[in-house]
Amino acid sequence: MINRGGIVAALGLSALMAMIVAPAHADPDNNQLIIDGEVIITDVAAPDDSPLDRIYSGWRFRSPETQSLQMDDFENPGFVAVDDAIESWDTAEGSEGKSCASCHSDPSSLAGLRTTLPKWDEATNKPATMENLINRCRTDRMGAEAWGWEQKEMVNMTALVSLQSRGMPVNVQTDGPMAEWIEKGKDLYYTRVGQLNMSCSNCHEDNYGNQIRSDHLSQGQVNGFPVYRLKWAGLGSIHRRFKGCMENIRATPFKRGSDEFIALEAYVASRGAGLAVETPSVRN
Ligand code: HEC
Ligand code: HEC
Questions:
Q1: What is the pLDDT of residues 28-53, one digit of tens each?
Q2: Dist. CA 276–CA 41, nearest whole Å
Q3: How far does residue 69's CA lie from ligand 1's centre (Å)?
Q4: For residue 72, how many other CB atoms are within 10 A of its CB?
Q5: Cα R_g (the chain), whole angstroms
Q6: What CATH number does domain 6-74+168-283 carry, 1.10.760.10, 1.10.3720.10, 1.10.1740.10, 3.40.50.2000?
Q7: If I label 133, which of 20, 144, 196, 221 is the partner at 20 to 30 A Cα–Cα?
Q8: Ligand 2 geometric centre to CA of 204 (Å)
Q9: What is the pLDDT of residue 8?
Q10: Which are the contacts of 252, defined by CB distance < 8 A and separation ≥ 6?
Q11: How far from 200 is each of 203, 208, 262, CA to CA, in Å?
């Protein structure tokens, strides 16, 4: 069992103590995520080497109103982005006069890919995220300009491609050449940073289920990304969320697409192994 009070004691009269309150409903709820009649798994036994007993999708910590938006693709505001990406999928761009469809036919040909990312990439000798893989096609195969990490077209496309894996369990490689990167991500996850001197684990491992300010803390899983955040009034990438969390503890965030965030993405994904892909998920 996790001792959620332990960290507060360890920090003494810290910023954390001032921010986190343990309310009556200190756990994920028991609601079931059902989309189009299909049950999407939102909790599973934690992977073998996990410090947790059970892992939960962030969906389980959201209010019933926010949850319901994700249960109906017509109400889910993330689907506007998916529709835009379908258009962009069929649009030829760049010196080769090709569209994504020219080579990949239908987006469904990339089903399953999301569950494996980031994955080892021989070409660059480091892990590749979906953004990296899409941009390689744009620059090397289409003769088009790379998209920016958080550029609308990029985020929309990662949503369309990830949606093809919805319902499939996250299953990133953690051994072989990935091991070093997972280890690096783990170090970052447990290192305290920023003026508040906190680590990812202080919130998402020690205190999930508790309220922080007006927010219900989840385990900080990445199975729903890119997510539609009501606060952003749009979709955002995994690295955008990491950046926001680092800023909230007044740390200098790493850059989107940096080796640090790629390592962190790989490690966080491995902590969520077995959870179903939920893209595009809806969060507050
Ligand atoms: C000229 C042909 C071509 C075009 C155009 C193209 N791709 Fe690719 N794409 C490939 C090839 C070849 C691969 C590598 C095949 C592989 O790894 O299975 C690939 C790989 C990928 C991958 C990684 C797949 C995997 O399993 O690792 C993604 C994602 C992807 N493309 C997305 C796109 C998107 C999105 C577009 C449009 C913006 C696009 N591609 C345009 C040929 C193309
Ligand atoms: C001060 C507490 C705090 C710290 C430290 C913190 N986060 Fe968060 N994080 C939050 C809150 C609050 C949210 C929004 C509610 C939720 O999903 O937990 C959030 C959300 C997230 C989400 C989105 C989860 C989802 O289902 O949409 C991810 C991913 C995440 N954090 C990762 C990280 C990582 C990685 C770190 C370390 C770099 C980190 N967080 C550090 C408070 C924190």
A1: 999 999 999 999 999 999 998 899 99
A2: 6
A3: 31
A4: 12
A5: 19
A6: 1.10.760.10
A7: 221
A8: 6
A9: 44
A10: 194, 246
A11: 6, 11, 15
- Residue range 79-163, CATH number: 1.10.760.10
| CB 204 less than 6 A from any atom of ligand 2 | yes
Whether the bond into 118 is cis, omega within 30 of 0 = yes
Average pLDDT rounded to a whole number, residues 169-173:
98
Which helix (DSSP H) or strand (DSSP E) does residue 149 occupy? Answer: none
Ligand 1: residues with CB < 6 A are 98, 100, 102-104, 110, 113, 130, 133-134, 137-138, 141-142, 157, 161
Q: Is 245 annotated in the active site?
A: yes
With a 6 A CB cut-off, is 42 part of the ligand 2 pocket? no
**73 Cα: distance to centroid of ligand 2 (angstroms):** 25
Q: Where are the domains of the chain?
A: 6-74+168-283, 79-163
Q: Is residue 185 within 6 Å of ligand 2 at its C-beta? A: no
Q: Would strands 211-212 and 119-121 be described as parallel, antiparallel, or unpaired?
A: unpaired
CB 269 within 8 A of CB 118: yes
Rounded distance between C-alpha atoms, residue 272 and residue 33, angstroms? 17
